[in-house]
Design goal:
Blueprint: E1 3-5, H1 9-18, H2 20-29, E2 34-36, H3 40-50, H4 55-68, H5 74-79, H6 82-87, H7 92-106, H8 120-128, H9 133-137, H10 141-151
Antiparallel strand pairs: 1-2
């Protein structure tokens, strides 16, 4: 389930008071809505799917991908036929990345339930151990870390 990260007005006012340039940008752009996904596996999958795509294309593929699966779980991804995932709009490489992530979770190489107890550096070290995932996540790595920090209340 996707949530919108809600930034309180007092936090916005604080930023505006601290930095004139930031204040000008906030006035010009307005409030930014940022999607946060509270479930780590879903957040990681979404970041793989969205990598290097326009928002509109990624949104469409994300919906199609979710519709192809009975539920978004590691087991469901691994058991899905590659042809079905390709029909959803996923590239061969992204399918491989999703399968690698799913296998890492199922084999306890990546213990999602333990991420909240880890330091930021430990989370990064866990993610980069997964075959191919670092290549997939290089562009969005800081965004992913921010989402994981939000999920675990940091």
């Amino acid at each position: 389930m996707e949530e919108i990260l809600n930034i309180e007005q007092k936090e916005i006012d604080y930023l505006k008071a601290k930095d004139k340039r930031m204040s000008d940008l906030i006035e010009k752009i307005g409030k930014i809505k940022r999607i946060c996904i509270p479930e780590p596996f879903t957040a990681l999958c979404r970041n793989i799917v969205y990598q290097q795509l326009s928002s509109q294309a990624a949104d469409s593929i994300w919906v199609n991908f979710n519709n192809k699966l009975s539920e978004l779980t590691p087991a469901a991804i691994i058991s899905a036929k590659k042809s079905e995932l390709k029909a959803a709009g996923l590239s061969e490489r992204k399918i491989d990345y999703l399968n690698n992530l799913s296998e890492a979770v199922l084999n306890n190489q990546l213990k999602l339930s333990k991420l909240g107890e880890m330091t930021d550096q430990e989370i990064i070290e866990q993610l980069i151990k997964i075959k191919s995932i670092l290549k997939s996540l290089e562009i969005n790595f800081h965004h992913i870390i921010q989402q994981l920090l939000y999920i675990f209340g940091r």
